[in-house]
Every structure is written in C-alpha cells, then in structure tokens.
Amino acid sequence: EGVSLAGAAEFAGYSPTYFSRHFQKLMGISFRSYTEEIRMRTAKKMLLAGYPVSEVAQTLQYDGISSFSRAFKRKFGEAPGSYLEKQQSEMSTNEQ
Q1: Which of 7, 14, 27, 95 is most deeply buried (CB count within 10 A of its CB)?
Q2: What whole-number distance in Å separates Cα of residue 79 and Cα of residue 71?
Q3: Within 13 Å and on the Cβ side, how many CA atoms surround 82?
Q4: Are 43 and 66 in contact (CB under 8 A)?
C-alpha cells in the first residue's frame, strides 16, 4: 500500500506540515522525493526479476503504464523497456 505524507505524519503523531519540514531537515530530502526514490529502486528490482512493466506500474500505484514510464525515464534517462534490455544484454555479455 502506498505511503502518503498525511498517513506517515498521522502515524508519527504530527501534523503533515510539521512532519514534512522535520523529515526534510533530518533526511536532507523531501518526503515526496524520498518515496519516489524508493519506488524507483523497487521498480528496477521488479523489472530485473521479470515482472512486466504493467504489473510494476500497478504494484507501485502509478496511474498507468505511461505515467510510470515517464517517471522512470525522468529518473534514469531511459524507458523501463530500454533499461531492461540493456541490463539483460550486459548480463549475457558477462556470462560469456
């Protein structure tokens, strides 16, 4: 289940505004950027484990494949399919 700022703040017992500011101060990154980073790391692992792009997008609660693909490309500079092809190619090369 996705983690929201409001949910995390409520769990910690703070207002969303206070939690957000405190999180940024402690972590050096906004809560939103942090959760997006975790989602993208998870996306890479899922793709390499063989999950289809559509399932990765759904599992990570993107609005759709195109929304997920845009976020992935923004983060890593390439589409999920291109990333996967490149990784599989490198793995094949390393096995030879």
Answers
A1: 14
A2: 9
A3: 8
A4: no
Q: What is the DSSP letter of 13?
A: T
Tokens standing for residue 37 = 């980073």
Q: Is 49 exposed, middle or buried (0-12, 13-18, 19+ CB in 10 A)?
A: exposed
Q: Is the pLDDT of residue 51 over 90?
A: yes
Give the 3-state DSSP-derived string for 32-85, with helices as H, strands as E and coil as C.
Answer: HHHHHHHHHHHHHHHHHCCCCHHHHHHHCCCCCHHHHHHHHHHHHCCCHHHHHH
What are the residues whose beta carbons fall under 8 Å from the beta carbon of 29, sequence distance 6 or more? 37
pLDDT at 89: 84
pLDDT tens, 71-96? 999 999 999 999 988 988 887 777 66
- Measured at the CA of 75, the angle between CA 33 and CA 51, to 5 degrees, comes to 100
